[in-house]
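This part of the workshop introduces the protein records we will be handling. An example says more than a description, so a record of this kind follows:
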Amino acid sequence: MDSIGKKIYQYIKKRYILGLLLLFPLAVTYFVVSFAFNSLDSILQPIFRWIFGTNIPGASFITLFVLVFLVGALSSNRIVKSSLKVFEVIIGKLPLINGVYTTSKQVSTAFSGGGKKGGFSQVVAIEYPKDNNWTIGFLTNVIKFDGEDHGFVYMPSTPVPNTGWLSIVPSKKIKHLNVSAEKAMRIIVAGGLGAGDSLDSIKNND
């Protein structure tokens, strides 16, 4: 009887853990998406409430989505470009606000891969936290440090990549990896899962 009870217990335990593993990513996705949706949807709700006298669920989110899409679609238009340049000149003359805007633009450009020196598009590996221990990161900038080329390498943490470490590393000690930024981020967040059977560096042609 005890043997049968243990088998039943082990079976229930195993299936319960399996259920948790299957539902956990779904639950995390739901809460993250729900939080983002509710946060965005609350931005314009006061305006809709003032106009219609009640909240309209989803209206703010849809309005912002359409607005962002239109800005992206019209970004190549000369009039829009000229307007943005005038706006940036005005922002640049405002104390405090100009610093926030400039920094935000630099971060945005870096994530879009538009930065001239790397942004978050160049995936690299450095020996960190000690020799022969490699950490994946992103080469965000290249500078002269004591007369030699060094790179700023940002290393997102696992499994929450919104925090991390920044190191200044000699360029000759930085390995450029033959992997996309999206895949590298997935590997970092998943703790190495999805890396495949091999990971290769790009050989320098110097």
Q: What stands out?
A: The mean pLDDT is 82.
